[in-house]
Design brief:
The protein is mostly helical. It contains five helices and no strands. Helix 1 runs antiparallel to helix 2 and helix 2 runs antiparallel to helix 5. The radius of gyration is 16 Å and the shape is elongated.
Length: 139
């Protein structure tokens, strides 16, 4: 599920890069912000605590949390704002670069370690899916 979220958001950033229409840009950014907000909340509430406890991690999760905060700061700067000017596009582009870096670390470092741990990934996935459904209903 987390990989699917990563792929969806990556596609949205690509779509943003190719769009010139301010109306479309705003709609894409709102979707990016919604998806990232829910995704980061799922990871922070469920995945990261389970990963940290199972692997006694003191490096990957703290770094991931800092990356999340950077993305949240950028979300706050573009969410609900009318597209216009170079800074708006730059903020979205930098957000995409942060997310791309973050996804690479999760998929290449965290996910393999989680898979090789004693974590019950099926149960964790079910818990995250249920929470995601609840968060999507609220959004």
């Amino acid at each position: 599920m987390l990989r699917a979220d990563h792929k969806l958001v990556s596609g949205l950033f690509d779509e943003f890069e190719q769009t010139r229409s301010a109306t479309k840009k705003k709609a894409i950014v709102e979707k990016i912000c919604k998806e990232l907000t829910i995704h980061t909340q799922l990871e922070e509430e469920i995945f990261y605590p389970a990963f940290q406890a199972a692997l006694k991690d003191h490096e990957l999760v703290p770094e991931a949390n800092v990356e999340h905060q950077c993305v949240k700061d950028l979300i706050a700067q573009v969410q609900g704002v009318e597209p216009g000017g170079d800074e708006y596009d730059a903020r979205v582009k930098v957000m995409g670069e942060f997310v791309k870096h973050h996804v690479k670390e999760e998929q290449n470092e965290m996910f393999p370690k989680a898979k090789n741990s004693k974590l019950d990934l099926m149960a964790l996935g079910e818990q995250m899916f249920a929470r995601k459904q609840a968060l999507m209903a609220q959004a």
